[in-house]
Write a structure and sequence with these properties.
Phosphorylase Kinase, domain 1; Aminoglycoside 3'-phosphotransferase, Chain: A, domain 2; 2 domains; 5-stranded antiparallel β-sheet; 11 helices; 9 strands
C-alpha cells in the first residue's frame, strides 16, 4: 500500500506536467489482473485515462505498439498522448465509463438464458446483446483484415502448450489439491496434443487474446477496445470464442452458435481465410475454446493462490461447464472428458 501511495504521488506530479495544470482529479477506474492500475483524470473538464504500470513488473511498449495497430485498422482503441517508460506512466484517451459487461441486457434477447456475472443483479443491464455483438464482430473482422506476419509475436505451439499447462500447474494441484497419476497424465498429454494441433492448422491473423465484454467499452464508436497488450499472431477462432464464451458472463449454446455463425458469414463475405463450411469452423471454434478455458482455469487459480486476488476463482465453475458442454461431443477428446469426469466434477459444485 505504501508503494501504491508513493506511485500515486509520482503519477500526479507527472500528469500535472503533461497537462500543464497545477491541480488534477484522479479516480481509480480499475486494478488489472496484472500489476497495472488505471485512473480517470479530469483536467479542465476534459477526461483522460492514466495507466500506472510499474516498470519493474510491466512493459508499456507492447501496449503502445498494439494500440497503434488497432487504430491503424480502424478500431476505437486509446490514443497515447504522453508516455514515460522510465516511470511506467501513459496518458490515454478515455473511451467511456461502461463496459459491454456493465450494460448487456438479457431482457431484450428472447430466450437468451442469460447468466449474470458473479454477484450481479440482471436489473443493471440496459443494452441488446445482438446489437453490441454485431459491432464487436465488425470491429474484430477489421482487426483481422489488417493482419500481416512479423508484426506480433506468434501464437505458436510453445505458447499454446505453456498456457495449457497452467491447468495442471495451478488449477488441479492448488485449487482441487489433485496430482495426476501416470495414466491420467498420459490422457492429459494426448488431449493437449490434439488441441494444439487443431490450433496450429488454422490460418493466422492478429489476435487480441482477451476480446471479451469486460474489455469492450460502450463508446461513441462501438466498441472501445482495451486490454490488448498481449496480442499475438494466431488462429482466427481465438477472439471469436473469447467474445461469446466469456470469463464473466454465459450464454446458451444456441445463441453462441448463432453469433459465431454471424462472424463466420461476415468473415467469408470479406474473403478472410476461414473454414469453407460452418461445421469445420464450429469444430475449430469449439477446440480453440477448450484451450482457452483450460488456460483460464489455471490463470484464475494462479491469481487466487499466488497473487491473492481471490475474486477470480469464483468464476472457475463457468469454465468447467464450458469444457463439459463441448468435450463429450467429440470422440477424439475423450481423454479430456475422462480427466474432468474422474478428477474435476466430483470436487466442485456447478
Amino acid at each position: 500500500m505504501a508503494d501504491h501511495a508513493q506511485r500515486l504521488e509520482l503519477l500526479c506530479a507527472w500528469l500535472a506536467r503533461q497537462a500543464g495544470a497545477a491541480d488534477c482529479n484522479l479516480t481509480l477506474v480499475s486494478g488489472d489482473a496484472s500489476f497495472r492500475r488505471y485512473f480517470r483524470a479530469t483536467v479542465d473538464d476534459e477526461s483522460f485515462i492514466v495507466m500506472d504500470a510499474p516498470p519493474d513488473k510491466e512493459d508499456c511498449g507492447p501496449f503502445i505498439h498494439v494500440a497503434r495497430l488497432l487504430r491503424e485498422a480502424g478500431l476505437n482503441a486509446p490514443e497515447v498522448f504522453a508516455q514515460d517508460f522510465e516511470q511506467g506512466f501513459l496518458l490515454l484517451t478515455d473511451l467511456g465509463t461502461k463496459t459491454y459487461l456493465d450494460v448487456l441486457s438479457p431482457d431484450r434477447c428472447v430466450g437468451c438464458g442469460f447468466e449474470p456475472p458473479q454477484g450481479a443483479s440482471s436489473r443493471q443491464y440496459t443494452e441488446d446483446p445482438d446489437n453490441l455483438f454485431e459491432d464487436a464482430i465488425d470491429a474484430l473482422i477489421r482487426w483481422q483484415l489488417a493482419s500481416r506476419p512479423g508484426v506480433l509475436p506468434p501464437y505458436d505451439e510453445t505458447l499454446l502448450r505453456r498456457e495449457l499447462n497452467l491447468f495442471t500447474q495451478w488449477y488441479l494441484p492448488q485449487h482441487l489439491q489433485i496430482m495426476l497419476d501416470t495414466k491420467s497424465q498420459a490422457l492429459w498429454e494426448e488431449a493437449c496434443q490434439r488441441l494444439v494441433a487443431s490450433a496450429a492448422c488454422q490460418p493466422r491473423v492478429f489476435v487480441h487474446r482477451d476480446y471479451m465484454p469486460r474489455n469492450l467499452m460502450l463508446s461513441e464508436t462501438n466498441p472501445g477496445v482495451l486490454d490488448f497488450q498481449d496480442a499475438v499472431y494466431g488462429p482466427p477462432t481465438y477472439d471469436v470464442v473469447s467474445l461469446f464464451k466469456d470469463a464473466f458472463i454465459s450464454w446458451p449454446e444456441e445463441r453462441v452458435d448463432d453469433w459465431s455463425r454471424r462472424y463466420w458469414e461476415a468473415a467469408r463475405a470479406v474473403e478472410l481465410t476461414v473454414h469453407r463450411n460452418f461445421v469445420e469452423f464450429k469444430r475449430a471454434f469449439d477446440w480453440m475454446g477448450l484451450q482457452r478455458h483450460l488456460k483460464v482455469l489455471g490463470i484464475f487459480a494462479r491469481l487466487t493462490y499466488r497473487d491473492g486476488k481471490s475474486r477470480y476463482v469464483a468464476d472457475t465453475p463457468r469454465f468447467v461447464r464450458y469444457v463439459m458442454t463441448v468435450a463429450p461431443h467429440y470422440r477424439e477428446l475423450s481423454p479430456l472428458t475422462q480427466i474432468f469426469e474422474q478428477h474435476v466434477l466430483p470436487r466442485i459444485t456447478l
